[in-house]
Design brief:
The protein contains nine helices and eight strands. The structure holds BIS(adenosine)-5'-pentaphosphate (AP5) and magnesium ion (MG). Magnesium ion binds next to helix 1.
Length: 217
């Protein structure tokens, strides 16, 4: 049976950073809705044009197109054994849609690591983030600096600061998270799959705590 994990947490909590590490550990693809949208924006697709303006305002892309994009991604061959989802679902409607999609693939949401971090920390993390142009690898100017400034350690591509990592947009994203995504904590608590992980530690320590709750490999 396939295994599906959903990384939950506020913008900047470390979902992407940890998903990158544990997806490798579990041998499952890392599926980030934000990365998929940024790919569409880069390729100037119709969805990219729609998403770009919404993302730069810190709002959420409409459920219907987001759900369709994730369904397509999960139907690909590399997801046959499951996936680590990051940034999806983000609304109760998306969570319900995910349950139906996974049921089609004879799966379910098996574990939801909820990375918990105080709001003040989030702003500092996001305004100091540097992202790799080619593959979305994540760095931080203080907490996880690249070996060479402006260059990705993994693929040598350029590092850039996301447009939505400006302070005003970050504040809006946190508000949107609290209103629309935080209710999912209760949703997954009720179904018994939520595990809370304290995200207010150095990256390696958070990884260690996450590993301790992962399904047996
Ligand atoms: P998305 O790309 O998903 O952004 P997000 O949820 O706002 O989350 P982030 O990527 O900002 O944070 P993260 O938790 O991944 O943190 P990271 O590991 O990078 O979405 C962008 C936009 O797309 C949304 O605003 C929305 O418009 C749209 N969208 C996406 N999905 C959608 C959906 N399902 N529905 C509708 N719209 C959707 O870490 C952050 C920084 O902190 C990095 O610099 C990192 O190096 C550093 N760091 C990480 N961990 C630690 C640590 N333990 N200690 C110190 N520093 C750390
Ligand atoms: Mg991310």
């Amino acid at each position: 049976m396939p295994v599906y994990l959903v990384m939950l947490g506020a913008p900047g909590a470390g979902k992407g950073t940890q998903a990158e590490i544990i997806s490798e550990e579990l041998g499952l693809p890392h599926i980030s809705s934000g990365d998929l949208f940024r790919e569409h924006i880069k390729n100037k697709t119709e969805l990219g044009l729609l998403a770009s303006e919404i993302i730069n305002r810190g709002q959420l892309v409409p459920d219907d197109v987001t759900i369709a994009m994730i369904r397509d991604r999960l139907a690909r061959k590399d997801c046959a054994n499951g996936a680590v989802l990051d940034g999806f679902p983000r609304t109760p409607a998306q969570a319900q849609a995910l349950d139906s999609i996974l049921a089609e693939f004879n799966g379910k949401v098996d574990l939801v690591p909820y990375i918990k971090v105080e709001d003040e920390v989030l702003i500092e993390r996001l305004t100091g983030r540097w992202t790799c142009r080619e593959n979305g690898h994540i760095f931080h100017q203080i907490y996880n600096p690249p070996k060479q400034a402006g260059i990705c350690d993994f693929d040598g591509s350029e590092l850039y600061q996301r447009d939505d990592d400006k302070r005003e947009t970050v504040i809006e994203r946190i508000q949107v998270y609290l209103q629309q995504t935080a209710p999912l904590i209760e949703y997954y608590k009720k179904s018994g799959v939520l595990v809370e992980v304290d995200g207010d530690h150095p990256i390696e320590k958070v990884t260690e705590n996450l590993m301790a709750v992962l399904p047996n490999r």
